[in-house]
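Changelog excerpt

This revision adds worked examples to the README so contributors can see how folded entries look when concatenated. The first example is reproduced verbatim below.
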Amino acid sequence: MKPNYKYLFGPVPSRRLGRSLGIDVTPFKTCSFDCIFCQCGNTTSHVTERDEFVPFIDVCSELELWLADERADYITFAGSGEPTLYRRLGELIDFIKERTEIPVIVLSNGTLLYRPDVREDAARADIVKISLSAWDEESFQMINRPAEGLSFENAVLGAHEFRDSFSGKLWLEVFLMDGVNTEPKQIEKIAAIARSIGPDRIHLNTAVRPPALTSVRPVAAEKLAALCGLFTPKAEVIASFDAAPAAMRGDLNTDSLVGLIRRHPATANQLAAVSGASAAVIRRVLAPLIEEGGLQIEQRNGEDWYK
């Protein structure tokens, strides 16, 4: 039986990264944003100060154990909150790079990149993904609901400064919501800001998974595809989960499934692709947790999502 990791999750089939091992170094849900579209729900710890939220040595111990006999396409800092809030992020990236050639990715909202210490830590990764959903201060406050002291101007400034100093790949994710930030003039402004940052790749995403604010609605796939050409470089629409090779095949572990759902709301079919069990088995295994209140089901686009 595989260990029950506390800070590692997956590898999971990712829309962007193939088989990605996740590292979660912030408590649920510690973030500098409280985005209306967040799949993890509302932010409960709205902060901008960095801290060693989880013991550095414990994360290193789990990584050493996992690296001894596992493999992934990427090792990704993501999960329950904003990873750049972790004060020892740079040290942890160095620890990984000393032990494996698997590329390291930091999935960040980018809000803290105006700080030199955050830029220095993030720059140790191979790829850094930042996000952009707004076009001015008013839309920034409405969509991203930032922690006190953060501004749209500083977020964009930090992205420019990081791009100028970072030798790795910078990806930009533009998250679009129907009727929120999809008017032509809004898209033009977002695209102009994205172009000024100069990312290597741009991804268009939308609210496929249940969002924090239930009124948020996804943008149709056809519309997303039509918007790609407005961005430079040309944007890519992020696809849904592929039925990738299972990370837990033959070892259905309820704790592991719950850990994935906590960080990544998913359907029974998606969990089946990860675990190797059938969707029917997944539903049966998780049913008691629904009854006990440990999990919830929310319907979106005709599918039941565990969250």
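The second example, added in the same revision:
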Amino acid sequence: MPVPAEARPVRIAFIDDDSGLITILQRRFEALHWDCEVMANPPGPDRLAAMRLQAIVLNPELRPR
């Protein structure tokens, strides 16, 4: 099903250090024309808020640096 031109893409962040999982998820969501941000380490709360995301996929074992 085509995405309407006026629809805003979903903004999602992947925060994990497993490059294989990130590659698979990133390819799938990019096929849906979603905006994907990939990070190996979790950013601070201010940066996350500024990104205005609809979803975050996070490895809970990662710690902010």
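Reviewer comment on example two: Residues 26 and 58 are 13 Å apart (CA to CA). The longest strand covers residues 11-15.
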